[in-house]
Amino acid sequence: MLPVVAFPFEDFYIDSHHMTHQLEHREQQVLFYTGLLAAALGIGGIRAILCPMGAYSLQCYNQHQLLSFFNWFYWLVNLNSTVVFLGIAYIQQSVGKNLGFLIPFTSVLLALIAIHMMRNKLTYKPNKGGSLLTTLGVFLNSLKMCCLHYRHLSGDVGSWLDRAKENNGGRYSETHVENVKVLAKLFPLYGLQLLYRACITQIPSGYYIQTMNSNLHLTNLLLPIGAMNVISILPLLLLAPLIECVTTCYLSKEKTPLAPPPLLALGHACATLSVLVAGLSELQRKAYPLVEQTLSGKVLQVSSMPCFQLAPQYILLGLAEALVTPACSLISFQLTPSHIRGISLHFLTLSYGGGCFLGAFIIQLVFFLSGGNFYPNILHDGNLERFFFLLATLMAVNTFVFWSVSNRYKDLTVQGKALTISPLTEKLLHYKACLRFYDTVDCSSTNHSVESIL
């Protein structure tokens, strides 16, 4: 849909009488949002499989080598983002909006050709029982068994997921259920990433609005708004090689580097400080007088405060991303059995998307409760700083909760191993459940006969 969106809407096509026809505004919106939806679906699919695809070849590597892989993986991703924000954003704002759509279309087309040429080396088939349907089936079957209360078959169990086992009346083997129980231990980690991701989404939303309503002029050059996003990427580009050097020095001196949970807690604290600084910067921005600034042919009343004074909040959020994302990926990969590691990373990616929806929900809720006072048409008259202070308070609580439960993710020396049981053992457990059922029936009928005789 990108090439369709890239066509000029003002002169969409010329008929046989050499008359120029224009698309209606509604049709333009339909085309644009359809292309945006197609791009979102494509990006979501790529993010869901790209990182697991690279990590599958690292099954036998240790913790530090895996952390090095995730550091450099996200370093390359953000290096590409830097090129996009500096190059394409400038072209789209200063040269032509349509050309800004055609460039990513061309790059995606070349990437598809490259992937098609290398498809044989990029195919990975996980072991049997490691599919997403099996994992979801264990959860659904456990809920079903809990609702039906089949206690006369299964009795008391250690976990509600154990009710999905065949020897407890469920449909799944001991191996499948035990592996899902290992995966379920990571759900608190995924849940605590939701609010953090809501803070990260402030870069293209709240921080973007702040930058757009600030002075973008650097001498005689009008900076693209996306240039401020590069400031949030620079800490990651600088910190990833630094972390790699520090880890190498620690290992050469036979010392243990910093574990992933403290890195996650430090990253969450940086995100909290970033949103807090954003609220203080908004108060400072509103204190400056208004000036006129032209963006995309529109004249806006913006603050005369230079946009570079917003740099600290971008740097703090970039520092948080450099600490959190590789460490969280390492924990998700290291603590799960080998054949469901891809599913673990998929759930992590799902939590990232859930954080975006949570951020949008908080914005809509605050907008509704304030009657539009937080985000008016003229930001100078609004109260955006209150939203940032609210988000900083929630993120501080989230950081404290994560620190209190981080002990369960400290020990990564024992990797997640799949529980393996021979087919004969599984059959014996199944027959044992059947015998338990028949033994219950026989005992109940015998007791009933004795009571009748008495």
Which key terms come to mind for this protein?
single chain, 454 residues, mainly alpha, two-stranded antiparallel sheet, two-stranded antiparallel ribbon, 15 helices, globular, disordered N terminus, disordered C terminus
What does this structure look like?
This protein is mainly α and 454 residues long. α8 packs across α13, α11 runs antiparallel to α12 and α12 (311-334) runs antiparallel to α13. The chain has helices spanning 2-6, 25-55, 63-95, 97-117, 132-148, 151-154, 174-184, 187-200, 206-212, 227-252, 260-287, 311-334, 341-369, 384-405, 423-453; strands at residues 13-14, 20-21, 217-218, 221-222, 290-295, 298-303. The strands form 3 sheets. Strands 1-2 form a two-stranded antiparallel ribbon. It has a two-stranded antiparallel ribbon with strand order 3-4. The longest helix is centred in the N-terminal third of the chain and has 33 residues, at 63-95.
Topology of this protein?
Blueprint: H1 2-6, E1 13-14, E2 20-21, H2 25-55, H3 63-95, H4 97-117, H5 132-148, H6 151-154, H7 174-184, H8 187-200, H9 206-212, E3 217-218, E4 221-222, H10 227-252, H11 260-287, E5 290-295, E6 298-303, H12 311-334, H13 341-369, H14 384-405, H15 423-453
Antiparallel strand pairs: 1-2, 3-4, 5-6
